Amino acid sequence: MKQLMGVINLDHELDNLNELTYFRSGAAVPFASRYRLIDFVLSNMMRADLESVGLFVRRKYRSLMDHLGDGKSWDMNRKHGGLFILPPDWNDPTDTSLGDLQHFHNNLDFFKRAAAKYIVFSGTQHITTMDIEDMYKYHMEKGADVTVVYKKIDQLQPEHDLCQRVEVDEHNNVTSIHHEKDHHNLYLDMFIMEKALFLEKVKYSIAHGESYFFRDVIQKNRHDLKIAGYEYKGYHAVINSLESYYKNSLELLEPDNYFSLFKENPVQTKIKYEAPTRYLESADVSNSLIANGCIIAGKVENSVIFRGVQVRKGARITNSVIMQKCVIDENAVIENVIMDKDVHLSKDRILVGDHTRPFVIAKSSKI
């Protein structure tokens, strides 16, 4: 869509996943046996064929840059447009802007050079199968200044406490945006607006000492803007804590959840040419999601196993998430555990966490 460009803004996303975000941003956290959290929003934008996508990052972005490369896996390695990774620029001594407005101010050329007339903004903590083209058409039909995306949640969960809420009237016009926990319409950190209006508001907000675009421009000026609400009804998971990461990872073992996320909307990720997983005679695997390149000789049940994991004979893994290239030696026992990449668990070791609070092993540990 030549009329639409994308912005993935990580500036406001806190690193709430503890050990999993010691060495990487939340957007780079592995998920669902072979993906990273950023893959889902990037794939949504790829399906909409956006002209260009800008990724605004502030810290711990080495792992993210290594994963994204030149954007080829998402068909964004183009001569014109494509994927732009935009770290903070501290070289302008006259810059007085703060927060994500500082990012936008220091990269105004990225917006001005793009031919697109509209911008869709998103974070990475909400995993969806968003149809961005349909969202854009809705925005145009409503004639709104801004269209924000929300999802009505039947049963609120602890991870929803940190999410903003959206209230709408009978015409789906936004009447309020707030943090009241008993409301069921979750704001999905995604909105669309005209580029010219965005640039105008950025300039005005910086001149008036503001810091964050959504909060200071959209939320605080609700009465001065025509804001529409777009209700999203597809698969949704929010990853903003270790507990929500663990819960939503294991919920993908339910076929309905897995097919809702992947069947009709293929998700792209960094291509790695690895052999299929080998299951040795002693392997016993049930209700698990296992990526390529593994060697399984032990027992795996109700677990998510990433690429290149070795589970040796006599080892047992239950209700756990094991990331890339971990080695589980003979007769080790793992239950209710999140194990980051490159961990080596020695033989006969036993690690048991709680089903509501998993035990977490940091990257490259040896136990």
UniProtKB/TrEMBL annotation:
UniProt xrefs under SUPFAM superfamilies: Nucleotide-diphospho-sugar transferases, Trimeric LpxA-like enzymes
Gene Ontology process terms (BP): glycogen biosynthetic process
Tree of life domain: Bacteria
Keyword vocabulary terms for this entry: Glycogen biosynthesis, Nucleotidyltransferase, Transferase
Domain Glucose-1-phosphate adenylyltransferase/Bifunctional protein GlmU-like C-terminal hexapeptide: 283-349
GO MF annotation terms: glucose-1-phosphate adenylyltransferase activity
Cited Pfam families: Hexapep_GlmU (PF24894), NTP_transferase (PF00483)
Cited InterPro entries: ADP-Glc_PPase, GlgDAde_trans, GlmU/GlgC-like_hexapep, NTP_transferase_dom, Nucleotide-diphossugar_trans, Trimer_LpxA-like_sf
Every Nucleotidyl transferase domain range: 17-158
Family, per entry: Belongs to the bacterial/plant glucose-1-phosphate adenylyltransferase family.
Descriptive protein name: Glucose-1-phosphate adenylyltransferase subunit GlgD
Species the sequence originates in: Paenibacillus wynnii
